[in-house]
Structure formats: structure tokens, C-alpha cells
Amino acid sequence: MNPQLQELARNVIDQEALRPESIPMIELYMDQVTTLLDRELGHTKRGSDDKIMTKTMINNYSKEKLLPPSNKKKYTRHHILLLALIYEFKQVLSIQDIHRLLDPLIGNEEALESFYQTYQEKHREQRALLASALESDDSEDLRQIASTLATRAALESRLAERLLDAIAEEENALKQASSSEKESSDK
User: Fold this and answer.
1) In terms of Cα–Cα distance, which of 170, 167, 149 is closest to 159?
2) Alpha carbon distance 125, 121 (integer Å)
3) pTM, two decimal places
4) Helix (H, G, I), strand (E, B) or coil at 29
5) Measured torsion, CA atoms of residues 26, 35, 99, 166, in degrees rounded to the nearest 10
6) Under DSSP, is residue 28 helix (H, G, I), strand (E, B) or coil?
7) Are the C-beta atoms of 97 and 160 separated by less than 8 Å?
8) What are 97-112's pLDDT values in tens digits?
9) DSSP string for 121-156
10) Cβ contacts of residue 124 below 8 Å, gap of 6+?
11) 10 Å Cβ neighbour count for 128?
12) Which element (helix H / strand E) includes 106?
């Protein structure tokens, strides 16, 4: 493998997801949340001036109902887990799709903890798969490798969008069926 690719790949493959144990058990103010996320996820930034999460972003996610309301301007571990997921998913999904994906977890702390644990496991698996794929690629052309990775990411993103569309269709069908049953029983 090209030494430059090897170094760049190692930097990405070594990037762990936010570790729940790094989140204090106490509620945090907004500045503390942004500092924590920057410290724990700063290694994922493309450029040194990039921001992981800003106050404005967090306020917008709250307005979009991607986050439950803060408790007297304090944020819990569950807010932080949701923000970490939003940060990761916004790289490839629209806010609407992220909402569709995370909606059942918002306000459901037990489901969020379980989802996040599975997310971490899958994150580790995907990092290992990427490392394996790059090791088996004998190309030395960095442009070609970048093109292949971008194509794969685009295809996987499209599939994720289609899965989320299917979930929305199922949920709408269930709502309509439930609404029809209620109307029938009211008559």
C-alpha cells in the first residue's frame, strides 16, 4: 500500500466513536457540551478550523425536535449521545433522514443506550472492514482510490436513504390503518 495512503487511512481507521464512559454522569451546560464533543470527536475534523458542534447547531437541532428540550439549560448524557449520532450521520444524511432514523430514540433513554452500543460495535466493524479493503487494494493511484471510496459512500448513502423511505412508508401505513380502525370503532 502507498505509504501516504497508509498514513491517511490509519488516521481515519483509528478514529473511534464517542465513548459513553467519557460523558460525565452530571448534566452539562451548553459550553461544556461543545467542549466535550470537540475534545472527544476533534480527531474527526477535516480542518483545524472546523467545528464539531456549535451552540447554534444544538439550538437548531432542538428546534427541529432532534433533541429533547434541555433541563434548565443543562444537557444530559442522552443529549450528548444524540448529538454524537447527529454529528456522524449529518456527513451522509439530510436532517429529515436523521430525524426519521433517530425519532424512536428521542426521549427513550433505554432505547438510545442500546442503539448507541450497537452503533459503536458497527463503527468498529466498519473501521476494520475499511482497513481490510484498503490493504487488499493494490492501486497506487490516490485519485482512483478516492474515487472508489466516494462511489461506495454514495451508493451506501443512497441505500440508507431508501431504507429510511421504506421505514417512513411503513410508519405511515400503520398510522393510516390505526386511524381507519379508530374511525370504524367510533361509528
Assistant:
1) 167
2) 6
3) 0.87
4) strand
5) -100
6) strand
7) yes
8) 999 999 999 999 999 9
9) HHHHHHHHHHHHHHHH-----HHHHHHHHHHHHHHH
10) 16
11) 11
12) none
Which value, in Å, is the radius of gyration of the alpha carbons in the chain?
20
d(CA 86, CA 98): 7
Q: pLDDT for 27-56, tens place per residue? A: 999 999 999 999 999 999 888 899 999 999
What is the three-class DSSP state of 91?
A: coil
Let me know how long the chain is. 187
Beta-carbon neighbour count of residue 161 at 10 Å? 16
Task: Report the C-alpha gap between 22 and 61 in whole angstroms.
Answer: 22
Report the amino acid identity of residue 113. E
CA angle 128, 129, 133 (to 5 degrees): 120
CA distance 67 to 31: 16
Angle at Cα 162 formed by Cα 173 and Cα 123, nearest 5°? 115
Grid coordinates belonging to 138: 493494490
Residue with the three cell numbers 386511524? 179
Copy the grid coordinates of residue 120: 459503536
| C-alpha cell recorded at residue 75 | 444537557
